[in-house]
Amino acid sequence: MLDFAVEMCVRYTKDVFEQYGPFLAAMPLCEALAAYLTGGIEWSRTQAAFIQLFARAAYQGDPALSEKLVQPIANVLREMVSEMLSQAQQRGEIRPDVDLEATTRLVHALMISAGDSQLLPYLNHYFQVIDPALPPERMLQALLDLILLGIAPGSTAEGL
Predict the structure, then answer these.
(1) How much is the pTM?
(2) Closest Cα to residue 88, out of 145, 159, 33?
(3) Which residues contact 72 (CB under 8 A, 6 or more apart)?
(4) Which of 55, 88, 112, 155 would bridge 93 by S-S if both were Cys, CB 3.0 to 4.6 A apart?
């Protein structure tokens, strides 16, 4: 019964996320990343029971749930980030020499840590992303600046 419930949740969640992917990819990258993170947080708050199950599976490492629940959804989210970055590169918002595969994985990880710190306060004790003196909007702007300035045309990390 649990396997069936997990499968239904995964299908539903993947379908929801896949609907938004093309819209995000068509947006300017800064707006797309902001919408991806804030929209994901808002959606997650409406799905509290599912998020608790997902977080338990993701952060406690249950192999069965990791394979059936976490990986399929994480793959969809990573693909959304990949498509946003790819389209942004085609529009000239990202340097042509940027390694999209590596950048996708890092942006995906940064977005997870920023979002999960807001959704799961116990993770924020470790990540320390959100603080009463540092509202989420300020953190989001710093995150976007970090990402976008690092991959923007004209930026470089030569000599590293």
Answers:
(1) 0.90
(2) 33
(3) 10, 14
(4) 88
